[in-house]
């Protein structure tokens, strides 16, 4: 998967996440993104990361899907369609951290679907 398609997937996930928020919450945390159509993948990930860590720390890892599921998403996001897992990641800082780490490893070639 190319960087552009990963950014596109992230944008789609952010739009889905936006629909789960009330408009006031969106306006205070995400409105600045609409003013920046050229926002890079890195900026989007950093913004999403800040909000998730502030609002959903989940230190006890309650309800987390596990590394194997996150690895599946990191290695083949185009074929991953478990909405429950995607929703959980959007509300769990530890899972987001683990997913981003796995994704970095996939991009660098250090992790595959069976690692």
Counting DSSP E segments of at least 2 residues, the number of strands comes to 0
Our estimate of the beta-strand percent is under 5%
Q: Please report the distance between the alpha carbons of the first and last residues.
A: 18 Å
Main structural class: mainly alpha
What is the number of domains?
A: 1
Order of helices and strands: HHHHHHH
Helical percentage: 55-70%
Principal-axes shape call: globular
The whole-number mean of residue pLDDT values reads: 78
H/I helix tally: 7
Largest sheet: none
Low-pLDDT segments, ≥5 res: none
Instruction: Compute the CA-based radius of gyration.
Output: 14 Å
Task: Please sum up the structure shown.
This protein has helices spanning 3-19, 23-29, 31-34, 41-55, 67-75, 83-89, 93-108. It contains seven helices and no strands. With 115 residues, it is an all-alpha fold.
């Amino acid at each position: 998967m190319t960087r552009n398609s990963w950014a596109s997937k992230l944008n789609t996930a952010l739009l889905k996440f936006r629909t789960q928020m009330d408009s006031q919450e969106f306006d205070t945390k995400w409105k600045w993104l609409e003013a920046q159509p050229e926002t890079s993948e890195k900026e989007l990930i950093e913004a999403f990361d800040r909000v998730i860590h502030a609002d959903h720390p989940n230190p006890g890892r309650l309800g987390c899907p596990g590394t194997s599921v996150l690895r599946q998403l990191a290695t083949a996001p185009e074929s991953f369609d478990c909405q429950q897992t995607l929703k959980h990641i959007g509300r769990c800082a530890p899972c987001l951290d683990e997913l981003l780490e796995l994704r970095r490893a996939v991009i660098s070639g250090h992790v595959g679907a069976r690692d």
